[in-house]
Input
Amino acid sequence: MTAPRVTAGFAQEIAAVVEQLRHITVQVRTRRAATGAGILWNPGEPEGSGLVITNAHVVQGNQATIELGDGSVARARVVARDPKRDLAALELELEPARAMAPTGVRDSPPLRAGELVIAIGHPGGFVGAATLGIVHADEGARDGRTARWVRADVRLAPGFSGGPLADAAGRLVGVNTMIQGSLALAVPAATVAAWVRRSRALVAS
Amino acid sequence: MSTVLQSLSTELADAVESAGRAVVAIHARRRIPASGVHWRPGVVVATHHTINRDDNITVTLPDGTTAPATLAGRDPGTDLAVLKLAAENLPAATLRPDTPPTVGELVIALGRPGPSVTASWGVVSRVDGPWRTWHGAEIDSLLRLDVAIYDGFSGGPLIDAAGRVLGINTSALARGVPVTIPVATVERVVTELLERGSIRRAYLGIGTQPVRVPASLARKVELKSDVALLIVSLESGGPADRDGLLLGDVLLELDGAAVSDPTDVLAQLGGDRVGRPIAARVIRGGQVKTLQVTPGERPTSRAA
Output
């Protein structure tokens, strides 16, 4: 029997994308809440770089401890919070400030039902776990408004909250936020980007 | 650059998109709609258990428009229902009738519980031979899935990675576990429902339970199997009652074939048995008797 080339290539590529995503996935720890996940937000535009994005429900207070993918630990404070969208942005207090890996964000095209997606999180304290699934429904805007959620058929557990949902190229498409039965709901990356831009403007002024 | 991963992703989305063009939403119950498949031009297949009314049924097409549909017939046995629809320009599903799915094959379940198509993926977890549903209908092969089920999943198609339909999914035939009714069974039921409006099935009007026959008695009456069926209920005025079977009779054989499980009885009761007498060999009061029983046609309103 010949070696299954497609499957082997598939496995290698999945591993590579997961590795790449682990670089932008952090652990968010607060005194009260269990560990959640977060995303290093460095999309290559001046405003809103060097932040950690997570769910508002992951950081209850104004402070958190962030553990990066390489094991280094830093304190961070909440600079913006939106309980309605369930988003929070934290600023890292890194000394000295370090260069961060860029965060590839998918602006377009909208997700199609059936596309592969990968989620990274820390279920049960297991750091950097990955799950693979597909997009449950087309992301297309309805009535000119961006859909509230990216819906994915991917098995999540508590501990994935605030972590990245990415496409087959490893580009961020959402922030994993809720589990509804076996359906994962993520805040769309475009919503996050727009919110960060607005919040930054508020903080700066 | 990840090429396999992105190609697979695109191909899966293409499969969902092309197969989704023949998946419709069916409004025939309260709360959320269920799914259906445009199986042949003008013919939509759905599941019986998600159609709670016979009239006033509407269908949402993939382009978002709504069209009225009429119920051509339903079969509680296989949980299938057939609707007729006047929709031009709606493509019919591409079927895969010849190559059966295999265990481990990558599959996608589609639904349309609203305007947009929904997808969940997984693998075929079990493939087996013909089986009978708890209503006695024969399904050509058993297809179990390792796929998450969502609201409105029933009536949607199971498709392969190329977007071809392998069958119709339902959650009502195995206690909430997803099961796919294969293309061959759907074809058979659709044809008969379009012709007759119902599936003809013979019935005797008995309820049975397997019992062990004492060894001495089994030897005396030369039994083929030491398990037979005790008649524990008898429909008053039904075929078996009318032709003289009694509660407490132990049914040994039907037309010479040993029966040791209720499904063995169902196996003898295809649509062609209606009105044709069948020889029932029973033990009554320690004696073996043979009675002629003429099966009737199973009323459609009865579930079992």
Summary: Residues 202-297 of chain B form a domain with the Pdz3 Domain fold (CATH 2.30.42.10).
